[in-house]
Amino acid sequence: MDILKSVDLVKKANIYFDGNVTSRSFVDSNGEDKSLGIMMPGEYNFGTNAAELMEILDGEVEVKLAGSDTWNTYTADTSFDVPANSSFDIKVKTITDYCCSYIK
Amino acid sequence: MDILKSVDLVKKANIYFDGNVTSRSFVDSNGEDKSLGIMMPGEYNFGTNAAELMEILDGEVEVKLAGSDTWNTYTADTSFDVPANSSFDIKVKTITDYCCSYIK
Q1: Domains located in chain A, CATH noted
Q2: What is the chain B residue with the closest CA to A98?
Q3: Transmembrane region positions (chains A, B) (predicted)?
Q4: Is the pLDDT reported for residue A57 higher than 90?
Q5: How many CB atoms within 10 Å of residue B67?
Q6: In sequence order, what are the residues at sequence separation of 6 or more whose Cβ sits closer than 8 angstroms to the Cβ of residue B68?
């Protein structure tokens, strides 16, 4: 079982798209801003401020980055990068568990 | 903003009722087992092993403990206790954010 040791965890949830996407923000022991979240099946668009590393812990998604015409599929234990000040479209095929790292 | 300092956070989500209830387990800095979760509107039944303290962070639920005929309403900043080795029925009226403490 993968346990993130000694993190500072924000108690209240982040709730998006009427609860179809929810997450918990935390700062890890290296001072990195991250969140753990759940996406229910559906299609969403997310904007970024900082660049993001999206790790898929479980589930299946298709992702199209802003400015691209290509949809790429990601499943458990794969990840994708999103540039800063950009956005991505995501088609969530099955309930998806993810970890997002905000890159300083 | 309420931040839980220095917790050990399990990375993978707990997913119940086809994703309508999801949570993240962690051990707080006092060694207490807890979870932060989200319940989508609907009706659910949960069993308990250890006794539980359920804190409603946001949202509205009605709860009926096993052996009781009474439904009680809980909203943000209220909580209810569930005995060990028992269960409770819950009607989730709005998307509900909660913290569950497992009492040793």
Answers
A1: 9-103 (2.60.120.10)
A2: B12
A3: none
A4: yes
A5: 9
A6: none
Task: Tell me the average pLDDT of chain B.
Answer: 97
Alpha carbon distance B7, A12 (integer Å) = 15
Cβ contacts of A94 on chain B, cutoff 8 Å:
none
Q: Does B40 touch chain A (CB under 8 A)?
A: yes
Burial class (CB in 10 A: 0-12, 13-18, 19+), B38: buried
Asked whether residue B1 carries a pLDDT value surpassing 90, the answer given is: no
A77 and B CB contact within 8 Å: no
Helix (H/G/I), strand (E/B), else coil: A102: strand
Give contacts of A18 with chain B, Cβ < 8 Å. 95
